Amino acid sequence: MIAVELKGETIVITMAGNVSDADWDAAVLALEEKLGGQASVHLTSANSPKLHVLMDWEKLGGWEKGARSTCTWFCMGNQDMIDRLAIIGDERWRDEAERLVDIYRNAQVNFYLPTQRERAVTWLKQGHE
Predict the structure, then answer these.
(1) Sequence ranges of the domains in the chain
(2) Is residue 75 within 8 Å of residue 87, measured between CB atoms?
(3) Residue 14: beta bridge partners?
(4) How many Å apart are CA 70 and CA 123, to the nearest integer?
(5) pLDDT, greater one: 10 or 113
(6) Out of 17-26, 49-58, 120-129, which region has the weakest mean confidence (pLDDT)?
(7) Where are the alpha helices (DSSP H) in 1-129?
(8) How far apart are CA 36 and CA 31, in angstroms?
């Protein structure tokens, strides 16, 4: 399951259980709806607002076959829209978070443990000041 919320100027993507391709399809539709279609087709310019994303993997179990690749392709296609990315998860997801550092090369990416949730939220808000 993937839930997508817009909280102020931050997109919160919460993953729980084992994520499937169908979960990603639904999440992409929800994200496009919340961003007014920006996530499907967009043009980047110097004036384009950059987004802050909180990926909550605290209850993530894993990815079903193919779903991780779907996630990677979506992230790569929208990497220029992201300015800051905070990932919350336990230690088993730290290496996976490093993979996102490679994808979001022009963004600041930080990994936080679940006990550091407030720190992650504060860090994301600092980028909007």
Answers:
(1) 2-126
(2) no
(3) 3, 56
(4) 28
(5) 113
(6) 120-129
(7) 21-34, 67-77, 94-103, 117-126
(8) 8
Pick the CATH number of 2-126 from 3.40.640.10, 3.40.50.2000, 3.40.50.10600, 3.30.428.10: 3.40.50.10600
> Where is average pLDDT lowest: 8-12, 37-41, 65-69, 108-112?
37-41
> Which pLDDT tens digit goes with each residue over 57-82?
999 998 888 776 666 656 655 667 78
Compute the residue count for the chain: 129
Tokens of residue 113, six digits: 């443990």
Query: What are the structure tokens assigned to 87, written together?
Result: 């990932």
CA angle 57, 61, 66 (to 5 degrees): 100
